Amino acid sequence: MRILVIEDEKKIADNIKKGLEYQSFAVDVSYDGEEGLDFALTEPYDVIVLDLMLPKIDGVEICKTLRAEKVDTPVLMLTAKGQLDDKLEGFDVGADDYMVKPFDFEELVARIRALARRPKERLEEKLTCDGLVLDTTNFTVTVNNSPIELSKKEFALLEYLLRNKGTIVNKDQIIENVWNFDADVLPNTVEVYVNYLRKKIDEPFKKNYIQTVRGFGYKIECN
Q1: What is the mean pLDDT of residues 80-88?
Q2: Range of the structural domain that residue 135 is part of
């Protein structure tokens, strides 16, 4: 999943980013409302973590603008204030959830996962394909019940391919959804990681999960 964190307190923002990346999320961070709104309007995200009090444009205005522009990405609003009026204002402009700082990081992750399962198409927690099972809750992958050890980026790539099984995805789409916005990733990097996956889930089991569609990209086909 790809997350946008808009938070002007750099230490908090960087700690959230570090923690979420440890959970295999791709995370972009913005430290002011103007840049954050630009990211939210132009890049695809599964969840936006949005501080209420921000320089340049505050969280309420950002949320209001996103909903006016028909951006329905779930928004989790953060604030140091706990007053009921602030919560109600956030919900009035389209926020989906609300946490008061300081907060428990494990609860933040749980709420992000819950929000990510809310879109029009509910995100499955277990993704399967002909004996291959990826569990997004426990971060496990098995083929024919045999556990497979994947790096965080390999796991994120496989999850994206499985969520789009039967559909061709090109390298730009993969980079956009699996890597951070500011990551220095070349198309060849995608090829490298696809090959890593093939060596772990295809070759040992004589499978052909990840197919190359020449000139277009990759897809996973299941029977």
Answers
A1: 61
A2: 126-220
